[in-house]
From TrEMBL:
It comes from the Bacteria. CDD domains: Arginase-like_1. It comes from Agromyces sp. G08B096. This is Arginase family protein. Pfam families: Arginase. The keyword Metal-binding applies. One of its GO terms (molecular function) is arginase activity. GO terms for cellular component: cytosol. PANTHER family: ARGINASE (PTHR43782). The lineage of its organism: Bacteria, Bacillati, Actinomycetota, Actinomycetes, Micrococcales. Belongs to the arginase family.
Length: 285
């Protein structure tokens, strides 16, 4: 069946000055998606409260997770989640993990590993804790449980260029596979890294800040020396050709204006096309 796009315009997981622009970015992408194959999650307008969790805006982020899970439960085709900030991937990965019986690798393409905990995070932003929550660590109601979490041995980080001390400790302690920006220019190297996890299925998360800022302007946390757009599209195509794609997410689009969004959309839509190629084809086994 073709892909179904689940639009999650969550911004509360970011503490950037452009945090709310993540909702604008999700809406801009949605405008170029087929309406009949698109579901939009209702994100509360209020910022939310931490509720002594150490997670900024926790109450709203938890509600968004619950609403996203409800939306995903009704999806029959390949779910491609459109953020919003990186927290949009939390429910999406949980859904993919359950759908595959835990036989899932997560390819996390991001300038940041997002492996902080509420205790280690310098900002309290959930966007910087999302992958750690996917691995089962974090605030109650956000950290995935044993039935849906993804073990560190099944994680592959690509393009990370800004790492906090606790994130480095976690990566080293669990021998999490990491791929440099240069590695991402070789699709075969990316495929080999996912193969090394031993998983049969893959979830691909793309925070657009994995790209070099010269390739995309609408980034809340632009990091220099990122991957080129053509290389990102090529590696995604290689991965979805090799592995069944159990789900995917695009996050981190925070355009400064509608006109600026229009300038960036061709690059993003190429990525959408590459991910959509992972949808099962009619008649395929």
């Amino acid at each position: 069946m073709p892909a179904t796009f689940v639009v999650v315009p969550v911004w509360q997981g970011s503490v950037s000055a452009r945090a709310m622009s993540h909702a604008d970015g999700a809406a801009a992408i949605q405008g170029d998606l087929p309406a009949a194959a698109t579901v939009v999650v209702d994100v509360p307008v209020e910022a939310g409260e931490a509720l002594d969790t150490g997670v900024h805006r926790y109450s709203t982020i938890r509600r968004v997770r619950e609403r996203t899970e409800e939306a995903l439960a009704g999806v029959t085709g390949l779910p491609i989640t459109i953020g919003g900030d990186c927290g949009a991937s939390l429910a999406a990965v949980a859904h993919a993990s359950r759908a595959t019986g835990g036989d899932l690798a997560v390819l996390w393409l991001d300038a940041h590993p997002d492996l902080n905990t509420p205790e280690s995070s310098p900002s309290g932003a959930f966007g910087g804790m999302t992958l750690r929550a996917i691995a089962g660590d974090g605030a109650e109601g956000l950290a995935l449980d044993e039935d849906s979490r993804v073990l560190p041995t099944r994680l592959v980080l690509g393009g990370i260029r800004a790492i906090d001390d606790e994130e480095r400790r976690f990566i080293d302690e669990h021998a999490v596979q990491t791929l440099t920006v240069e590695d991402l220019s070789d699709p075969a190297a990316v495929v080999a890294a996912v193969e090394a996890t031993g998983a049969s299925n893959v979830f691909v998360h793309v925070d657009l800040d994995v790209l070099d800022p010269s390739a995309l302007a609408g980034l809340s946390y632009p990091m220099p020396f990122g991957v080129e757009a053509s290389a990102l599209v090529a590696l995604v195509r290689a991965v979805v050709e090799r592995f069944p794609l159990a789900g995917a997410a695009i996050a981190g689009f925070a355009p400064a204006s509608p006109d600026a969004a229009e300038d960036d959309l061709p690059t993003i839509l190429r990525l959408v096309g590459a991910l959509s190629a992972g949808a099962p084809r009619p008649g395929a086994d």
